[in-house]
Write a structure and sequence with these properties.
By secondary structure, this protein is an alpha+beta fold. 28% of the residues lie in helices and 24% in strands. It starts with 12 loop residues before the first helix and ends with a helix.
Length: 756
């Protein structure tokens, strides 16, 4: 009986539920004995010149070992995104100008952690305020420059060609609208943290909370000007990442430099308010969507124009509009698609990846466009989607966004979601409420989505070793932070070898043991790292057969695996001698290392139906229920898959209803604590009805696609559409996310005024 597709309980959970996790800040590693504690002095102003920094009083404070400014650091300032203008580097510690609230200006090292904040208060920085640039349209004017030497606030432009004035010439109906895909915070359970210690061998051991040990190692080494072999990165347990912990942060290299400079280990862990202003944030696109087609519902042309906010210093957020442009057509077979994007710097926190990273922005745009078009021609929003999706016989399908979709049945996914939700009955309930004039109206939102997964790196390595006691060890280049890789990778090895899951240990996040790896991001892990473990298992079987052939005095071609006994046997010869993997390992090391390269991305897809109730008197929105079809190919472990879908849907709902990072006109963050930044708990979330659909990809031998971000991409537009749909009878066609009670109430009041 195959273990594949079964609900194997997570092997990781007992430790987390009993002993608890060991995060970077919890480490008691002997290499960190006698560590100093780093406290960063951060700018309270978004944009200013620094006229002086006085650290003398801080140096005299109790427990202070050193106070350093940018002038003390002999490292070249890093350009955090290679494609940005070279003048837009971020200093290790600001010396001449600060560009966002929370930018570090001095480093305080103390014997005890509690001494740091008190000493930091004594650092006297004289700021001369400059005009802050917060709005992307203001940034485009280049009237107030963040980097005067660059001569512009624009850090990247994608597609510089002028729009075709006749692009929509053959369309009977054309609808255009500017919409906002708001900035959100990753708000991971564990804030950023790093600890560093240099050994007598001249190597640095760096413990960090991160999604990719190998990538962090390479970036830190480059910033420090040393060879990557001199940096040993270890990832303890990681309390959430959501994209914000991809790669290294400058603070990681600063911690390592300070440890080398002082000759003592250094530890750093930020507070929640520091995290909400210092860790990279996500989304933040101002989009203009224009859609045109015929009155029978056929969409003929679609244009997407994006202005994206990179924040103060260009990071990965500069690149994410590339994904938005690639995925602009969504699931639809549209004859003409045009997109362009401009990315600017502002006096805000830098942006980077957040669950979905560019793809949710594309889906939200095209789904809003489809709803607006449907409303304009008076067609049901579900029907218009089914008319325009790519037909299954067209796969592999190259879109006008320039990518090749591997496989999909988009209309079927819509039908399954509609059937599961009893869509027709929901519309009848909605009609009855409207006829009665109820204060609480329901809205039904439908989304159809496709996303690109693979994380930009389609190769991943795995090593597999069987020991003489019958246990096995897997090392993987993926870096789990809640996904359940220890369970999933053990299942994949167990399926081939017959070794029980509880006898297979999975390890990760140590660059000395796994020098090469792509980490965990972009829904890449199962289809790369997991398939690599599968491939390693097959290669280990081949090695075992070759060695067993001599022992069993049989041809390799006549041997097979007896998974019931984790042994090699002669095919078709019951009762004949066998040799177990453990016995082979006792004779000689039984270990393989392999790399699987899928070479291409995969494209999971699905459809969501959301039902919300809107109180028209207060603007309050309640998500009553959501039905989700998320097709990521064959499901290895339904328990793990459902967990990823639940988390993704929750984050999509949160963006649609609650989450938004807000800055005032002076660049002051108004959402720097959990008291101000709203996101839902389980109590505010609805029932999730998960509908199963599995369409394999031909890209890898197991047919796996990514599932980690799917729920977020499908749920946010469905919920936003449902809120608008609840009020469509009032003439309301759009409400920007988050659809907060105030925003909904204001839309209702505006509609009432306009009507009467």
């Amino acid at each position: 009986m195959s273990i594949m597709g079964t609900r194997v309980v997570r092997v990781e959970d007992p430790v987390f539920l009993t002993r608890g996790a060991t995060y970077t800040d919890d480490l008691t590693d002997e290499r960190l004995t006698g560590a100093l504690h780093l406290t960063l002095v951060r700018s309270p102003i978004a944009h200013a010149t620094i006229t002086s920094i006085d650290v003398e009083a801080a140096r005299e404070a109790p427990g202070v070992v050193a106070v350093l400014t940018g002038a003390d650091i002999d490292l070249e300032a890093p350009l955090l995104f290679a494609g940005a203008p070279k003048q837009m580097v971020r200093p290790w510690l600001a010396t001449e100008r600060v560009r966002f609230v929370g930018e570090p200006v001095a480093a305080v090292l103390t014997e005890e952690r509690y001494q740091g904040p008190d000493a930091a208060e004594l650092v006297d920085v004289d700021y001369e305020p400059l005009p802050a640039v917060v709005d992307v349209r203001e940034a485009l004017k280049d009237e107030n420059l963040l980097f005067p030497d660059a001569g512009t606030n624009t850090c990247s432009v994608y597609n510089k060609e002028d729009p075709d004035p006749d692009f929509f010439a053959d369309c009977e109906v054309v609808v255009t609208r500017e919409i906002i895909n708001q900035r959100v915070a990753a708000a991971s359970l564990e804030t950023r943290a790093a600890s560093a210690a240099w050994g007598d061998d001249g190597r640095c051991t760096l413990f960090v909370s991160n999604q990719n040990a190998q990538g962090a190692r390479d970036e830190v080494a480059g910033w420090l000007g040393v060879d990557a072999s001199q940096i040993h990165v270890i990832l303890p347990d990681v309390g959430g990442g959501f994209g914000a912990k991809i790669g290294a942060d400058p603070e990681f290299a600063l911690v390592a430099w300070l440890a080398r400079h002082t000759g003592r280990p250094v530890r750093w862990s930020e507070s929640r308010s520091e995290n909400m202003t210092g860790m990279v944030q996500g989304r933040d696109q101002r989009q203009t969507i224009t859609i045109g087609g015929s009155r029978d519902g056929r969409v003929k042309a679609y244009r997407l124009d994006v202005i994206a906010d990179a924040g103060a210093y260009p990071r990965l957020g500069v690149f994410l509009p590339v994904f938005t442009r690639m995925m602009a057509p969504g699931t639809y077979d549209i004859e003409k698609v045009d997109s362009r994007a401009t990315v600017v710097v502002t006096n805000t926190t830098s942006t980077a990846a957040y669950r979905g990273a560019g793809r949710p922005e594309a889906t939200s745009a095209i789904e809003r466009a489809m709803d607006l078009f449907a409303a304009e021609i008076g067609m049901d929003p579900a029907e218009i989607r089914k008319i325009n999706v790519v037909a299954p016989e067209k796969f592999p399908f190259t879109t006008k966004g320039g990518v090749e979709y591997d496989s999909g049945e988009y209309a079927k996914a819509i039908d399954l979601a509609l059937e599961a939700s009893d869509y027709a009955t929901l519309r009848e309930v909605q009609k009855a409420r409207r006829e009665r004039g109820d204060a609480k109206q329901i809205g039904i939102g439908v989304s159809s989505y496709v996303e690109i997964t693979g994380g930009g790196a389609f190769a991943e390595n795995a090593s597999l070793e069987v020991h003489a006691d019958g246990t096995a060890l897997v090392w993987t280049g993926t870096s789990p932070h809640g996904q359940g890789h220890a369970t999933a990778w053990a299942m994949l090895a167990s399926e081939q070898l017959g070794i029980p899951v509880d006898k297979i240990t999975v390890r990760h996040g140590d660059t000395d043991h796994v020098p090469r790896g792509g980490g965990t991001m972009g829904s890449r892990s199962l289809q790369t790292g997991g398939v690599a473990v599968h491939q390693a298992s097959l290669e280990l079987i081949d090695l075992a057969k070759a060695r067993a052939a001599e022992i069993l005095e049989a041809s390799v071609e006549d041997l097979e695996v007896d998974t019931a006994n984790a042994a090699i046997v002669v095919r078709g010869a019951p009762g004949s001698p066998t040799v177990s993997f453990a016995q082979l390992a006792e004779r000689e090391e039984l270990k393989v290392q392999t790399v699987f390269d899928g070479k291409k991305a995969t494209f999971p897809f699905g459809s969501h139906v959301a039902v919300v109730e809107v109180d028209t008197e207060t603007g309050k929105v309640t998500v009553e229920r959501i039905w989700a079809v998320d097709d990521a190919g064959p499901v290895l472990n339904p328990l793990l898959c459902e967990g990823q879908r639940h988390g993704g849907i929750a984050q999509g709902i949160a963006q649609a209803l609650l989450e938004e990072v807000v800055f005032d006109p002076d660049g002051q963050p108004l959402t720097a604590t959990f008291a101000d930044y709203g996101f839902p708990s389980a109590a505010e979330l609805p029932s999730f009805d998960l509908v199963t659909m599995e369409t394999p990809t031909p890209i890898n031998p197991l047919g796996f696609k990514g599932i980690g971000e799917a729920g977020t991409i499908g749920s946010a537009p469905a919920v936003q559409s449902a809120v608008v749909d609840a009020l469509s009878h009032l003439g309301i066609r759009h409400i920007d996310m988050p659809t907060t009670p105030l925003r909904v109430w204001e839309a209702i009041q505006d509609a009432v005024k306009e009507d009467g």
